[in-house]
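Extended Data, panel c. Modelled sequence:
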Amino acid sequence: MKINAINFNPSNAQTNSTTNGTNEFTFFTPQKSEEVPAEIKPMQNISDEEIERKRYIIENIPKTYTVKPGDTANSIAKAHNISVNYLLSYNGLKGNEILTPNKTVFKIPSARMAKNIYSINDVAKAMGVSQNFIKNLKKFEDGQKTNGTLYRENEFHNTPYIDSEGNKTIGIGHVMKKGDKSYLTNKQVLKTFTNDLLTMEENLWSIIGKSNYEKLPQPIKEALLDMTFNKGTAIIENSEGFIWCLKNGKYEAAINKMTDIRSYKGNEMSGLAKRRLFDIATACKIYNGNIPNSNLATAQNLYKKGIELLRQECKENNLNFENQLVGYNNEIQNLWGDKIKLINQ
């Protein structure tokens, strides 16, 4: 049977075989990533935040699994509460290998599930990120109420709604799947949100490599988490050279690639321009205020593109552009201060 999963292209993946009686078992062995120099000193040791994370995450022991008739990579990943991307990368697979029942053996990585999540702050601690980052991510996912006001920190979408892409969604950006509950308590919303973020982190491991990801500066990790939560790993994989820049510590160049503002349908959107400006602002915190000119130029051009799109969207939807512009600019100013020259008409 064939796997139809992700576009994963590990170099020089290996397979090792062993025999057990009359049966031959094939183990897929991932390759170790190479150490690379970096412009900004990467993270090396386990941080206090990483130790703190373990208070909020249940982690199962790694094991092996022998493929059974009817199994697919997706079904195996789902049964073990891990993402299919992570399962394939952990085993050094591309996604098009033949699975042989009773012979093919997968190495199953530790499955992680959230626990003790009662607040936005708990979500931040579970992910090892700043509380401000989680609050901003929630704000982007929440959107506005029907009366135009914003959701407060302790207010959630407890019932399904349709997001800007037309997806049936609940909680904090959780796209609903068959069998999902149509009502979530606040605690369930927060736990689901954390589990989704853990999955996004695993998906990032699958394309960058876990060891490479763990060495990234925290602001870069946060920006990548938001991009992946918003648009999946394709937003990174489809940007030529992005992954290479991340692996090689070329963070200025990587930040300049955080500009994809296309929806899943391929349309450029002003809201996505604003979201990428959030990601760039987040990533640029590695510079402690001394942002390189190339990153500032990228942000300025992206802002201008966002305003062009906003003007077009207002015309198509009979909205007052001046009123929309005020709100748009307020959000950009909150992110960038005076580092971006605003357009006021």
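The longest helix spans residues 293-316. This feature is highlighted in the accompanying rendering.
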